[in-house]
Write a structure and sequence with these properties.
Udp-n-acetylmuramoylalanyl-d-glutamate--2,6- Diaminopimelate Ligase, Chain: A, domain 1, 5-stranded mixed β-sheet, Rossmann fold, 15 strands, alpha/beta, 6-stranded parallel β-sheet, 363 residues
């Protein structure tokens, strides 16, 4: 490896906030350093870009920060369907590691600092010999562990991940604790500082839970239910604060219509659909109440109702599954930051600047 500084962002489990922290860190570093780079050696959720399968995070960060790197170098290994079986049929750990180190060198050329994002906890990727611990060691990168708020669980999970990282010979730079309840920040900081001091691990940051980062937009809901857009394609990026299940009469449903809500209802419940659309004619004082419709059961409303929806260009999607299954999918949705989420991206930078010891992290 070269003389550039680098860190490997790992986590104690999936969805602890690695990508949000990576975004915030990269944006904060741009104020301090002129040549920063990003690489995600192993990616599990990819897009097809430029006829290449590339991890979503690599695409997001290149577009966001304008890195002058080949996209495939920013994510040399994309774990597509069948990848694990193919590897177990014909293992080649040396070949994959060579691919990663070659891409890293290309990305890091002339860089001052490189942020390397892992995938999941320290052991993810072990089945094809590319665990986070193995990759961090191969790239000679100190590891920053991301975990989430509390006292007992984060310490337990950090200890578990530390064992695998140490076994691989990795240096652990410190810990960032994410998603801490704001009212518990002082207490948790006090006790986690004591606990991590005992382990010889610096507490590099304590980031409060930010509800905005968990709020999906209507397009993400559409994807989660494999929906078909019937109307409002240009208005799908509105934030959804709550989901209402239409299993009551319109009179009672109206009492549950609150700002920035989505109504989930069978496509043949035209009474509820009309009740939701009525607010377009007479918007509530605090803004629109229902901002989208999710019609379930693969049922399209009567053509006259559908005509009103299309005339209003009201965001409406059709899902084939029943109301229960669709609602469950929405509630299980893991919200990821997207390029169009300018408010979330700005918040990620603000949180890292305010709550992470960046100087200690990059020293």
């Amino acid at each position: 490896m070269g003389n550039e500084k680098r860190i490997f962002i790992a986590a104690t489990r999936q969805n602890d906030g690695k990508t949000v922290i990576s975004i915030g860190l990269l944006l904060a570093l741009r104020k301090r350093l002129s040549r920063i780079r990003f690489i995600k050696p192993v990616g599990q959720k990819y897009l097809l870009v430029e006829n290449q399968k590339v991890d979503k995070d690599a695409v997001l960060l290149r577009n966001l920060c304008g890195f002058p790197c080949a996209l495939k170098d920013m994510n040399p290994v994309a774990v597509e369907e069948g990848f694990t079986r193919a590897y177990l049929d014909n293992p080649d750990s040396a070949g994959l590691l060579a691919q990663i180190t070659q891409s890293y060198r290309a990305v890091a050329q002339n860089a001052e600092f490189v942020v390397i994002e892992g995938t999941g906890h320290a052991g993810v990727g072990s089945v094809f010999d590319l665990s986070n611990a193995t990759v961090a060691k191969a790239l000679d990168a100190p590891v920053v562990l991301i975990t989430i708020g509390g006292i007992g669980r984060p310490v337990d999970e950090v200890c578990l991940n530390r064992a695998l990282l140490q076994q691989a010979g990795c240096e652990i730079k410190g810990v960032i604790v994410n998603k801490v309840m704001p009212e518990k920040m002082h207490t948790i900081r006090t006790y986690l500082t004591r606990a991590f001091d005992r382990l010889g691990l610096p507490l590099l940051g304590l980031i409060p839970f930010a509800p905005l980062l968990t709020v999906p937009n209507f397009a993400q809901i559409c994807e989660s239910v494999n929906g078909i857009v019937l109307a409002g394609a240009g208005r799908m990026h509105r934030k959804v604060q709550r989901v209402i299940v239409g299993a009551m009469t319109p009179r009672h449903a109206l009492d549950h219509f609150l700002p920035q809500s989505v109504l989930v209802t069978p496509g043949d419940r035209e009474d509820l659909i009309l009740a939701a659309l009525s607010h377009c004619a007479a918007p509530a004082p605090h803004g629109e109440l229902i901002i989208g419709l999710v019609l379930t059961g693969g049922l399209r409303p009567h053509k006259s109702i559908l005509h009103i929806i299309t005339q209003l260009d009201f965001p409406t999607i059709l899902a084939n599954e029943g109301t229960y299954e669709v609602t469950s999918r929405i509630h299980e949705l893991v919200v990821k930051v997207r390029e169009e989420d300018s408010d979330k991206i700005a918040l990620a930078e603000e949180l890292v600047e305010k709550y992470v010891d960046i100087d200690a992290l990059i020293s």
